[in-house]
Amino acid sequence: MIRVLVAEDQSAVRAGLVLILRSAPDIEVVGEAADGERAVRLARELRPDLVLMDVQMPRRDGVSATREVVGEGLADVLVLTTFDLDEYVFGALRAGAAGFLLKNAEAKDLLTAVRTVARGEGMIAPAVTRRLIAEFAARPVRETSADPAVLDALTRREREVLSCLGEGLSNAEIAERLEMAEGTVKTHVSRLLAKLELRSRVQAAVLAQELGI
């Protein structure tokens, strides 16, 4: 059972999210928060598997709350917002969010996202992935803050996996492209995250884009 905490300040939206999540037999909503401060407090008390986090909330925004929840190892965070590409995307991903989904996503896509993040595979909504990649591609090289030297610690295979992560590929898609077992892909992802001192595979995807690999 996937235990989820829903953090959303708009009561009607929150109620709708809870209704969708509770319709799934493998998901349990263990708590609700109307602001970022309460989201962090409930994450500490309830220790959910995942926090579905809005970015614009009173008392504390979702990016700040995500940074604390992930930083303390309380839960994975799936960020939910109406904004498809702005500072919230980058802020949430750098804060350690494991996924990013738009509020206009279909119910089935929300459930898929929750399950994907819960099993350790970060995800970004396809529309966001395309625009995220386009944004990085349009940046002058001098704007990147990433140091290419960090790749020296990776094996050739780990670099290939990192490149695939930068394209937003799932473990299954990476396995097919690189002709390896899915379990082996998971091992490579875990090792490269540890070597690069990253919190999630989504952060690895951002790094891959920044480095242009």
Automatic annotation (TrEMBL):
Domain of life: Bacteria
GO biological-process terms attached to the record: phosphorelay signal transduction system; regulation of DNA-templated transcription
Keyword Phosphoprotein: yes
InterPro entries xref list: CheY-like_superfamily, NreC/VraR/RcsB-like_REC, Sig_transdc_resp-reg_C-effctor, Sig_transdc_resp-reg_receiver, Tscrpt_reg_LuxR_C, WalR-like
Segments forming domain Response regulatory: 3-118
Modified residues (4-aspartylphosphate): 54
Gene3D superfamilies recorded: 3.40.50.2300
Segments forming domain HTH luxR-type: 147-212
SMART domains: HTH_LUXR, REC
Keywords: DNA-binding, Phosphoprotein, Transcription, Transcription regulation
GO molecular function, one term: DNA binding
Name of the molecule in the record: DNA-binding response regulator
The organism of origin for this protein: Streptomyces shenzhenensis
